[in-house]
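Feature request, filed as a ticket because there's no other form

It would be nice if the structure record came with a short human-readable summary line next to the tokens. Right now we just get the raw output. Example of a typical job, pasted below so the devs can see what we mean:
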Amino acid sequence: MKGTRWKKVLGKCSGEIYRELKITFSGMPCPDKWVFLVGCYNSGTTLLRKVLGSHTLISALPSEGQYLTDQFPSDHEIGLSRMWVLREDLYRLTENTLGPDATRIKREWCMRLDKSRPVFLEQTPANVARMRWIQRNFENAYFIGIVRNGYAVSEGIVRKAKPIHLEQGWSIEQAAYQWSRSNEILCEDAKHLDHFIWCKYEDLTENLEKEISKILRFLGISEQGNVELDKNWSVHERDQEIRNLNHESINRLTKEQINVINKVSKKMLLEFGYDVISAD
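Raw output as currently delivered:
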């Protein structure tokens, strides 16, 4: 009938009902460990998820967990693509926060996980702000915090993020603040966690086998799990061997952009042992 939307509405309702049925009958997951990869955008979380997810004892979600649940705000949908720190109030959760429905999140994620494997792996950069809440609501939670050179990350955010409401995208100042603030929170809240380990992007890309072995020992997992160390990995439409891409990213920065990053992020750059670049 003209002027009505019955077909679209019924189709949407049918999809929602089917999804609720799947969630209802998916069962509650009971893994030995929940593992959460956290870190600023463009720091290597996707790469690390794919490598660890190739282990025979680890089941990794196929994409960021924020997109597989209706309990967390999706940064893209609310106009914060790669920039959650601009609305920290929407993301920051602690063990004292009532927060989302953790049981529902587990059921939603369970639909995408191989329940025969004892370790479940999730990756969402914005979970930096939720680590303390996650620890309280997910049994035996382990956290891997990954950090990468702030110049390379800031350049990548400006180049890759596509905020729907900003034709010119994010400024280099906003990108540098995203890197600095998310890592400040990561450092602050890591002190409250029972199981936490750091991983540097530079170490991961330059000595993959050593870094993966360190992480597997942290997780109490046998290294003999057929982790695929030698293959090319497809990350954000790039299918290539694992290597350090910092030099390429930093070379794209102008002198003015370097000066802005230094102004915003110098403290955190030094905190993580990165050289402060002179724009002169």
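Something like this underneath would help us a lot:
The mean pLDDT is 90.
Strands lie at 33-39, 58-60, 119-123, 141-147, 196-200, 233-235, 238-240.
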